[in-house]
Write a structure and sequence with these properties.
The chain is α/β, with parallel strands linked by helices. The strands form four sheets. It has a seven-stranded mixed beta sheet, sandwiched between helices. Helix 2 packs across helix 10, helix 11 runs parallel beside helix 14 and helix 13 packs across helix 14. The longest helix has 31 residues. The chain starts with 12 loop residues before the first helix and ends with a helix. The structure holds 4'-deoxy-4'-aminopyridoxal-5'-phosphate.
Length: 399
């Protein structure tokens, strides 16, 4: 292998490795998007623990799952995406494939685009999650970008986004973050979603909705408003779900690819091709994590407990947003040009802070504070205990 060049470390997971190796006892990891509680831990949810006990007690076999996973899981995924009374939740136009995590869903979607729609370019928001272009490049799908983030307002570049979408050739695919946009935390309003959905339909573009944070923004149904607006407007789309964050099942690798087809036959054909892609890649999905999701969503008591745990995670993050903005205000540091109010308007785990590469580098080398080079801060890693140290350090590097 002496001819093989060494690859650079992953821009986000590589940061966690560097964090682990740092000997500073006051180090703070605001890199990777992993939820931490007020004590800085990432605990197993109590509802998940209870579900696991039930699964272990009742499990009779570890035989293979079907290529597309268990049907009960697929139904639970659809009920959560659309709401269980939505016509698409039980429609034969909608088919769901259980995948290893949201990343697995994105890769399988990429394989489908590459094999079945080979001329299509996939359009990504600028910026987007760093792994998006990488996943689709690996699958052989060409990508381009459309404007999304407006630096001046720290908000959505809505007009520029719509102008760009208007110019995309019919038949291309557009990746949209359903909520809690990674890395910016900036989401369209429900009204803006309706305008985006209308344009996707008029221009005959294929939406690929990445739904990695359902329940982390405003709530399970509120966060699905954009997806449901798109479903009202277009007749075909792909949805990639992840349960890594909302169930805290990061290392169980639980996700799904949902196909909505214009007709049941179209959905069935697309599903058959997805199954070919899966068989050639990882053959069939891992069972345990999906069984946890099915057990929780299939039991009224566990579902209620899980929803309360999800709400507690969401509320803690939103509390940290407010405290972060107030702590910066107190130090007369304005990351948003004039103030810090944009931080409390963003959704989900991340805040696009506006810190530049040099400032991020100084935070790491001088203060052992780890942030992704783009300035994306994981708000979920903030605690009351580390907030003052964090904001003092930011004040020092910004001034
Ligand atoms: N999409 C986005 C936007 C994400 O932020 C993530 C997780 N970082 C994923 C997909 C995939 O999540 P996972 O593979 O861990 O389920």
């Amino acid at each position: 292998f002496e001819t093989i060049p060494t690859a650079p470390p992953d821009s986000i997971l590589g940061l966690t490795e560097a964090f682990k190796a740092d000997a500073n006892p006051e180090k703070i990891n605001l890199g990777v998007g992993v939820y931490k509680d007020a004590q800085g831990r990432t605990p197993v949810l109590a509802s998940v623990k209870e579900a696991e006990q039930r699964i272990l007690a009742g499990q009779a076999s570890k035989s293979y799952l079907p290529i597309d996973g268990a049907p009960e899981y697929a139904q639970q995924v659809r009920d959560m995406l659309f709401g269980d009374r939505h016509p698409l939740a039980a429609s034969p136009r909608t088919r769901t494939v259980h995948t290893p995590g949201g990343t697995g869903a994105l890769r399988v979607a990429g394989d489908l685009l590459h094999t079945q729609l080979p001329g299509a370019t996939l359009w990504l928001s600028d910026p987007t999650w760093a792994n998006h272009p990488a996943i689709f490049e690996a699958a052989g799908v060409a990508t381009k970008t459309f404007p999304y983030f407006d630096k001046a307002s720290n908000g959505l570049a809505f007009d520029a986004m719509l102008d760009a979408l208007r110019k995309i050739p019919a038949g291309d695919a557009v990746l949209l973050h359903a909520c809690c946009h990674n890395p910016t935390g900036v989401d369209p309003t429900p009204e803006q979603w309706r305008a985006i959905a209308k344009l996707l339909a008029e221009r005959r573009l294929l939406p690929l909705v990445d739904f990695a944070y359902q329940g982390f923004g405003q709530g399970l149904d509120e966060d699905a408003a954009g997806l449901r607006a798109i479903c009202d407007a277009v007749d075909e789309l792909l949805i990639c779900s992840s349960f890594s964050k909302n169930f805290g099942l990061y290392n169980e690798r639980v996700g799904a690819l949902t196909i909505v087809g214009a007709t049941p036959d179209a959905a069935e054909a697309a599903l058959s091709q997805v199954k070919v892609c899966v068989r050639r890649s990882y053959s069939n999905p891992p069972a345990h994590g999906a069984m946890i999701v099915t057990t929780i969503l299939g039991d009224a008591g566990l579902q209620k407990q899980w929803q309360a745990e999800l709400a507690a995670m969401r509320d803690r993050i939103n509390g940290m947003r407010r405290l972060f903005a107030a702590s910066l205000d107190k130090r007369r540091v304005a990351l948003g040009g004039s103030d810090n109010s944009f931080i409390t308007r963003q959704n989900g785990m991340f805040s696009f802070s506006g810190l530049n590469k040099q400032q991020v580098e100084r935070l790491r080398s001088e203060y052992a504070i780890y942030i992704v080079g783009s300035g994306r801060i994981s708000v979920a890693g903030m605690t009351e205990a580390n907030m003052d140290r964090l904001c003092d350090a930011i004040a020092a590097v910004v001034k």
